[in-house]
Specification:
By secondary structure, this protein is mainly alpha-helical. It has one domain. The protein has 13 helices and three strands. A three-stranded mixed β-sheet has the order 1-3-2. Helix 6 runs parallel beside helix 11, helix 7 packs antiparallel against helix 11 and helix 8 crosses helix 10. It is globular.
Length: 311
């Protein structure tokens, strides 16, 4: 059974899917509605108010809801859909933590190398603000709470929604695209969107969603997406902060650059060049084959003897 077919191991009534999605994804839906209905000036005022909070307090307030929502998703899957969390995580007999570690180290290595190359070339727009006490507290908060934040986003978008939409439409390409677009929309209320531009950031967010979705479908599990997302968000918290980003932290560096995005170097290069190279690295390491079927093939219900619904 492939990754999407894991949904057949549980109950799949439409009302269960709608209820779970509304309850768990409610925070993202409300954020998007708030973004659409709010005046840009009101959004700026809300962001400015948050800047007045202590950085670590603001971070905790932003991340704690993800702990609750991830727990709610697990409860709904186990007791409403009556299937295991393992089936939501991977098609393998057990979670492959080495895969999580590899993708985590891959994105961390790329981010650190590219940052310090850029910093060595021109450091004029970066302020070194390392404070051992503040950074230690930030590190502790980040390693405790970010796994819940990225866990919710991956288990919801690349996990629950990918599987159940795939079972509903009977193919793989539609849930891949749909969950990537929804992933972008879910981040539409981030201050980066207002600072840089809606369409520029949507291309980046949706492109990242496609990368994580392709990892999940090609590898039949969430492990690589979990590691990549965690590495990316941890470094976004610990390495560099800026006044116009979603994460206001006591990071090692603070960027004083204006909130702009170069179409080529900041948008097209990562999405069209770096991401495919990362997929190539992963495909070589894990022997991915039959890309067409894994990304565009049909989703069929397996024979009853191949799976067992948890009663």
């Amino acid at each position: 059974m492939n990754y999407i077919q894991q949904a057949y191991k549980g109950q799949r009534e439409l009302w269960m899917f709608i209820l779970t999605t509304l309850l768990v994804a409610g925070i993202f839906i409300l954020n998007f509605v708030f973004y659409l209905m709010s005046d840009p000036g009101d959004l700026d005022a809300a962001y400015d108010m948050m800047k007045n909070w202590p950085a670590n307090v603001s971070l905790i307030i932003n991340l704690v809801p993800f702990v609750i929502l991830l727990g709610l998703l697990f409860v709904m899957v186990k007791y409403i859909h009556q299937r295991s969390i393992l089936s939501l995580t991977t098609a393998r007999p057990k979670v492959d933590y080495k895969r999580i570690l590899f993708s985590f180290l891959m994105v961390c290595t790329f981010t650190l190398v590219t940052f310090f190359i850029g910093y060595s070339i021109d450091s004029s727009e970066f302020v070194f603000q390392f404070n051992p006490g503040k950074f230690a507290l930030l590190f502790l908060i980040s390693i405790i709470l970010f796994p819940f934040q990225i866990g919710l986003e991956e288990y919801l978008f690349r996990g629950y929604l990918m599987q159940h939409i795939g079972v509903l439409v009977k193919n793989k390409w539609f849930p891949l695209i749909a969950t990537s677009v929804l992933f972008g929309v879910a981040h539409s209320a981030n201050p980066e969107v207002g600072a840089i531009g809606f369409w520029q950031m949507m291309i980046f967010y949706v492109g990242t969603g496609l990368l994580l979705g392709i990892m999940t479908l090609m590898d039949d599990g969430l492990e690589l997406a979990l590691g990549f997302h965690l590495g990316n968000n941890l470094l976004a918290s610990l390495l560099v902060t800026a006044d116009w980003t979603a994460l206001q932290t006591d990071a090692i560096f603070k960027s004083t650059a204006e909130p702009t995005m170069n179409i080529f170097s900041d948008l097209l290069l990562p999405v069209l060049v770096v991401y495919p190279i990362m997929l190539l690295i992963l495909s070589k390491r894990y022997g991915w084959k039959n890309w067409s079927d894994r990304l565009f093939g049909k989703v069929t219900e397996p024979a009853k003897e191949d799976y067992k619904i948890i009663k």
